[in-house]
Amino acid sequence: MASEINVRELVLVTLMDIDKGTKHASEAISSTLRNYQYMSKQERSFYTRLCEGTLEYQIQLDYIINQVSKTPVNKCKSLIRNLFRMSLYQLRFMDSVPEEAVCNEAVKLAKKKGFQSLSGFVNGVLRNLARQQERISLPSRAENEIQYLSIAYSIPEWLVEQLLEWYSLELTETMLQAFLQESPLTVRVNLARTTMEEVLQELQKEGIQAEAGFYADNALRLSGINYVNRIKAFRQGWITVQDESSILQGNLVQTKAGDIILDVCAAPGGKSLHAAERLFLAEKLSQSGDISHDSGIVIARDISEGKVERIEENIERMGYSNLKVEVWNALTLDKSKIKNIDIVMADVPCSGLGVIGRKPDIKYHVTKEQLDELQVLQRDILQVVTQYVKEDGYFLYSTCTVNPNENEQQVAWIQEQFPFEPVDIEPLLPSRLVEQVREQPGTNLQQGYCTLLPGKQDCDGFFFALLRKKKTAKGC
Q: Is residue 149, in this structure, part of any structural domain at all?
């Protein structure tokens, strides 16, 4: 029991850090898991589910708590507010946890954290929630559909309205449902160092279940994992964590020996690493394994030392020698790179609306004003980085959002402003995916772009577009 109390305390501290805005959810949860590697697999699972579940259902939890508590949730102190949320999540969604344990451990935590005077209030609210929460109904869908969708799927009303402007009701609700489903751990196999068969054998030795990816033939979906850093295949650089949406984007990078590839917003480095792998394999095929000193290179850039360090850590683990990392602000023009790059990759800062399922705090922090601001920032970056592409070179644009204004509208703007033409990407994508997305909003494969939608595709929400710089471009 002592260990279980400790795990709940870790959850509470994590939720408070996120609530105060001192850490993003993924950062806070990952940091705790790193610092407490000695937790058992069961404890890590309990911690992760309780943190992520409480965040995912925060709006619904607050709605229910407010039906019982005389003090509205937003008026409570951060510790009490998050104690209520995590306790109600256990009562509502974790059937294996006894109600008595939920209430008792919450009261103990309140006292331990210096809120002895509020322990009676905590106990009273939670006891009432345990008795009444099943009888508390959600808002009537018939009377107010926006409010119903907001509470049922725990997403701000303004964002529900925004999604409904972009997509049909059916498609919007499909995405909202997908945001609340558990996201699989997907890895990309490093084909520059190993084979799919060798990785599968190694994972089997460690008792890790692995299934083929839905779309990419170099992807695996793993389960039965305690801590990814403990996996031998991960430590020795045979695999790296990367969602299939991002892997699919990387498969559009059609490298040839000697290419210079520039990733302008690279952290944490998954796409740069993938490009380096594809470049290595292209040169190995071209030169029968004899890589010359003037072979191609991937240049991975990002804005800060901290972000670049994350890329360097991954490079060291994966063992790539054809990848160079630099601190560089994508908004700053590098005159030495103008018309000198074969492939420019720009995974620009975006609203992240496609990865809410992995990063639930996004939906609570993003604002409507930020959507417009991000569109302006993206165009500022694009005005700079499109200059680097050689004639007949490629520009690969991507985001992890489902906002058309940040996606296909930006691609149209690029073609209006600069001498680029679309590349038909249908031949570059798996047939299984092509059949799914062919008639999907935000997708025109012949025009070079594709939107992956949560719930419709078995991966994160994502957008990618491939353009070629026209040979006849003058003065650009």
A: no
